[in-house]
Amino acid sequence: MPQLLLPFLGVVAVLTITPGPDMLLVVRNGLTAGVRGAWLTGLGCCAGISVHATAAVLGLSAILAASADAYAAVRLAGAAYLAYLGVRLLISAIMSGDEPPPDEAAPRPAAGHGTAFRQGLVTNLLNPKIALLFLTLLPQFVTDGEPRLRTTATLAVVFLGLAVLWWRTFSLAIGPISRVLRGRRSRRLLDAVAGCALLAISARVALEGGR
Fold first, then answer.
1. I need a labelling partner for 5 at 20 to 30 A (CA). Which of 51, 99, 153, 200 fits?
2. Are 92 and 208 in contact (CB under 8 A)?
3. 107-142 pLDDT per residue, tens
4. Average pLDDT over the chain, rounded to an integer
5. What's the pTM?
6. How far from chain centre, in Å, is Cα 92?
7. DSSP state of 110
8. Alpha-carbon distance 159 to 44, whole Å?
């Protein structure tokens, strides 16, 4: 593995920073609830990654890959959850227009800490493509003669470590921006945009036929 570690790190770095539902949730929760909201959402994403990584190391992801029905069930469940989050954000954007103007200087937690973590966790767990990613990616960096289980587990830990580092850095970067966007109008616009984006992603996930 040592000779393949640098290429592996490069691939993981690209995959980690590629935008998707995870990043959308982290950005939304970060801009409305500050660094802690973004960080806890990112930790939830990492917890989901750890589950998928463990399943891949133990060979459980192969069951999902081999069963079209199981894959479709997880995919549709993920699409439904993203749609649920999108609808909630749109409702929040609409209903907040009837609220009295808040104190613009006061912190505005958009979601409880447990909610932020759970959103990141469930979004990851219900994404079957992450399971397939681990199933197909990790074996490519295991060379002949290496203990497959130990090397795969090590690569999974490296992947998870980079994910934690990325989300921590990303959440800290969002902090200064979140302090600027504390107005009610900014939050309504952000919720509306995030809600529409999640609904669009949900529709794409639900309608895709292949893997």
1. 51
2. no
3. 444 456 789 999 999 999 998 888 888 888 888 888
4. 84
5. 0.82
6. 21
7. S
8. 15
